[in-house]
Amino acid sequence: MTHNNMNKTALVIGAGPAGLMAAEVLLQAGWEVAVYDAMPSVGRKFLLAGKGGMNLTHSEPLNVFETRYGDRQPQLARMLQHFGPAQLRDWVQALGFSTFVGSSGRVFPTDMKAAPLLRAWLHRLREAGLRLHMRHRWTGWAGSTEGDTATSLTPSPTPTQGLRFDTPQGPVTCGAEAVVLALGGASWARLGSDGAWAPWLAGQGVAVAPLRPSNCGFDLQGGWSEHFSSRFAGMPFKSVALRAVDAQGNGFQRKGEFVATATGVEGSLVYAASALLRDEITAHGQATFHLDLLPDKTPGQVLAEVRYPRGARSLSSHLKSRLHLDGIKMALLYEKLSKAAMADPEQLAAAIKGLPLTLAAARPVDEAISTAGGVRFDALTDGLMLKNMPGVFCAGEMLDWEAPTGGYLLTACFATGVMAGQGVAEWAKG
To answer: Among the residues of 251-314, which ranges form H helices?
Structure first.
């Protein structure tokens, strides 16, 4: 399909990193670009991600970095080789910000903040001619009405025309030569990512994998006791190791920390294992991980200290003095072991080195940091255009991939945004 080179127009829905990056690529290629978003301001999730320090990407070698995308490594590697961690750091530099590598290998802007970076980027985009339409919530295509089934959301006359938005001033309908959808997943609905688009696209025959929580917490099977929950919800387990193996033999093992919640567990170490644990629950109705409360000690060392004569001291005092076990770790042992097991040195030592905790369910997707599932790659061309909707491209977290935290999510959002922008430009050439 060929288009006139004059006044090429693109409409981007979603003002997050993927949408803005697609817009930037198209502006550089000479397109007129308008970005629409349901929120009152741009980059709400981007700013939230920067609250604790803006983790942009990761410094590990690209061949290792690419493995963090699991089953979707083949699809994302191609985009990351074009716009990966190194290019992202250069891009940040060009906006006037330096980056540094933290002790964990994560990459941050020197001031650790997201807001100045976003302001500088928006300034550059506006200078290049970007038009922003905020408080515009996409509701499908004209010709459909609220309450219609997904199958009746028929693009008319073409998928890039008749796009309908709800606005404070009432409904509006827009179109362009090309459309980039960068609508996010289903986590953080209050910041605009509610997954409402999934049934609409599925109704158009687009293959969409179910949206599921990723980097999420879990509910413990049977929950905590009232005593444990009331005293320790919100408290961290520090310097522990988590080990899990699924039914296929895929394993996870890592040191770190996580937090007890009122109903279960959450936090960085749990998030890192969450894809394996979630899939195991989906397949078998539950998932068990083993918690090592003292990963720096061998089983033999732990057993020797547990067995050490404690005289008149209580078991709690004994374990605190010999193994520095106290607080939430000690409480967990009392929570999960019987009196007989606590009194048996072998059973107690084994539990300290590998206490099984069984999970019943992932927390709801809106509580998750990110989303798994979305538009399947086999529904897309290499340039990220929907095969059955010419001129409509997809980018960001609404695609079917997931990644751990550590800059991997953001980098892939940028990379897919670049690919979608370039995909539009290539498609328009005919």
So the answer is: 268-272, 274-284, 299-307
Fold (CATH) for 9-212+373-428: FAD/NAD(P)-binding domain (3.50.50)
Residue 355: C-alpha distances to residues 94, 220, 293 (Å): 49, 14, 8
372 DSSP β-pair partners: 212
User: Which residue(s) pair with 356 in the sheet?
Assistant: 290
Q: Quick: pLDDT tens for 232-289.
A: 999 999 999 999 999 889 899 999 999 999 999 999 999 999 999 999 999 999 999 9
- CATH 3.50.50.60 in the chain is located at 9-212+373-428
Q: Reduced to 3 DSSP states, what percent helix, strand and coil does the chain have, rounded to the nearest 5?
A: 40, 25, 35
Q: Which residue has the tokens 């990193």?
A: 17
How do residues 335-361 score in pLDDT, each as one tens digit?
999 999 999 999 999 999 999 999 999
pTM over the 0.85 mark: yes
In sequence order, which ranges of 83-150 are alpha helices (DSSP H)? 85-94, 115-127
Sheet arrangement for strand 163-166: 137-141, 163-166, 172-174
